[in-house]
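User: quick one, fold this
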Amino acid sequence: MSSSATTLTPQQRELWPTARALAATPLFISTVVFRLTGPVHRTALAAAVRRLTLRHDLLRAVFVDGPVPTTRPGDPTVLRVVEVSDPGAEPPAEIVRGIARSPFRLGVEPLFRVTLVRYAEDDHLLVLSCHQLVVDGYGQGLMLHELASLYRAEVTREPHDLPEIRQTYPETAHLLRDPDPKVQGEDREFWTSRLADLPTMILPADRSKPAETTLAPTGTVETTMPDPDGGVPAGLRRLRVSPFALFAAATMAMLHRRTGQTDLWVATVVDNRLTPESRAHVGPLASPSIVRVRFAADATFGELARAVQREAWATMERQSLPFKDVIAAAAANGADMHNLARVGVSVAAPLRLPDWPLADVELLEIDPLEGEPTGGSSLGLLVEEQAGGYRLRLEFDLSLFSVDRARDTVTAVAAAATAATADPTTTLSSW
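Assistant:
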């Protein structure tokens, strides 16, 4: 196990300046909370946490600032235990917020913590918090299942069934950035042409943005899109598009209906897990991307969804450049980049609960950062597949949108997605 310093990967270098500037805030901390009903073997859990951080060096890495930021190996994560003597005195959400809002100390400690909150012998919360410098969305799910597997091995005293990691995280991350100058030149040309002449996106806001540039307070609204008979998957098969293409097109249809624009785009994230080696790592390999579509005002929902799908496929193959280089190349060609990420769309499968030994496990939907200011999209749509339909969660800039306007907006996106799969020949002008 090397004790030498390691330079940051391209993905980490892109995030590092902002993460360092906001190190005293919890903005880059992702937290997952489970309720465990049944006995918990603390010694086995502590050993499993230790083995997980030894398996993934990044989970115990300490980030060191300097002319060239680096990481150095830190100590394995120690399971923290919080005893709650009076369960009625402090609701679980408040306990979780207290844990999750505690910033990591960059340069001092690893950016991963595991806390067991004990209410009773058969009632616990398991709180896993990690910084986005060490775990991305895909990695979060992988981490949970590996922890459960290692815990099961400790409880049963049998070998775990996890595959060997054959390629280091830095090696995998650097291979994603193709060093071939020809490939990078082709990707730079692709993005320059895709993002040239980018117009100013008009949002259906009901407030004016303050003149000063600040982190905006964030609100959240949700709606459900029931689909008990499987009409949406059937519609996706007819259209030959992914759920992302459907909901990105539905978002564009909503924006078109309210603003009349026919040149629209959404920001999204590509997880970049295309090889067995990349799928073995929890570390950040995902990268931002932009899907831009120009369409006719009388286009059909089907035409718009298929156009989004074609563009999404094209952009997925152009990930060799760091995103800051994409922005720089497009800006040099005259693109207006100020509103590039004004609208974001992502679609996620439901988090699959790990097979937890000894206890029943339940995912608690507690957002410890709700209401925190953010520098993200003015409108950010997260779509989650669930039994019998979809859940649409819209995060919005409270300085631009009232809660009622945001609720109308997410409802309109759900209606557009329903219309697109029910009858793809419906035109945007008649919807």
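User: anything notable?
Assistant: The longest helix spans residues 137-156.
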